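Handoff note, outgoing to incoming analyst
You'll be picking up this chain. Sequence as last confirmed:
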Amino acid sequence: MKIIEPKVLNCTNYDFLKSYEENYFNNSIYEKVEVKDSKISGITFDSCIFREIDFSNIELDDIDLIDVVFENCDLSNKNFDYKLIKRVKFNNCRMVGCSFVGSKLNDVEFITCKANYINFSNVNIKSMIVSDTDFSQMTFYETEIKNIEFNSVNFSSSEILKTPLKDIDFSTSNIQNIGIDYESLRGIIIDRFQAHELVRMLGVKFKE
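Most recent structure output, in case you need it:
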């Protein structure tokens, strides 16, 4: 599956603190910046690259992401609810507890991220690739999905409800102890070993 990559070819290095003061984050590369107890609100990150930025002490409020790359960043517990996330790549990022409730995700990629407890409830997903990523204890609830690819994703102890997954391939992923309803389960692609896990979840016992 192919997705549209973020358009960040014309970005130049710029001072993060200056952008914060100007409330303007466009066409820029930001690297290895320490920012404490600040708030960025009501803007769009547009055509930006963030490298090794720790957002732990930065409150992101009402932020849209268009053509953005996050590399080796800590975005844990950040809230992107009801926002537009378009042509965005999260590469080797820490995203524990991130929330995307009610958002629209178009052409988004997660690569080698630590993103357990991530919440995709009521999200509209169109074209997303997730690879080598920890999505354990994540949530899909009433999520609309069109074009998605999972490669070696950890879904252990996750919850998937009212989210049709017909023809979506989970065969390379860990689905141990996943909580899933029949509406979501119907038509998914798994391997024969995973089939035993799902049958066990349904309360069926195998006769030795």
